[in-house]
Design a protein that fits this description.
The structure is a single chain. It is built from four helices and no strands. The protein has 149 residues and is mostly helical. It has one domain. The longest helix is centred in the N-terminal third of the chain and has 34 residues. The radius of gyration is 18 Å and the shape is elongated.
Length: 149
């Protein structure tokens, strides 16, 4: 497969896996904001945080085992959790960006939290792919053999 074809496959796979993550995020958000929390902070701050962490785990598993599998040199628990830590940190930054968008959209439009969240997810998803591609699962630089310099 050409480099461009591989990149397009990666983008499409990423956004397909994020559809699954979005379903998890939206479902957990709806459950939390409908049945667990009935005040503003619970619905617009705590519920999105809980749903975010559930979606991060789903998206990371897809990224680690399918999307960027060619960049994992050795599958082990250590590798899994090392990558997961970086992925979660990256996603936390994107989450903060998403929350600013969600709250801004809610303030400007007055829409329901689930609709605001979906709109914010569309915009933050692009940033999330860039972080995965360039930071969390970045290509390792090839090192020269010690005796060939």
């Amino acid at each position: 497969m050409s480099k461009a074809g591989e990149y397009i496959r990666k983008i499409l796979s990423f956004f397909a896996s994020n559809l699954l993550g979005t379903l998890v995020d939206t479902g957990v958000l709806w459950l939390c904001s409908t049945y667990l929390f009935h005040n503003y902070a619970g619905q617009y701050l705590l519920s999105p945080f809980i749903s975010f962490e559930c979606a991060v785990l789903v998206n990371f598993v897809c990224s680690y085992f399918f999307i960027w599998k060619d960049r994992i040199s050795q599958y082990s628990w250590r590798s899994f959790f090392r990558h997961y830590g970086g992925y979660n940190l990256s996603c936390t930054g994107v989450f903060l960006f998403k929350m600013l968008l969600l709250l801004g959209i809610e303030r400007l439009s007055g829409w329901n939290v689930v609709i605001c969240n979906l709109a914010a997810l569309c915009l933050s998803g692009v940033l999330n792919f860039v972080m995965g591609e360039l930071v969390v699962f970045r290509k390792k630089k090839k090192t020269r053999d010690a005796g060939t310099e």
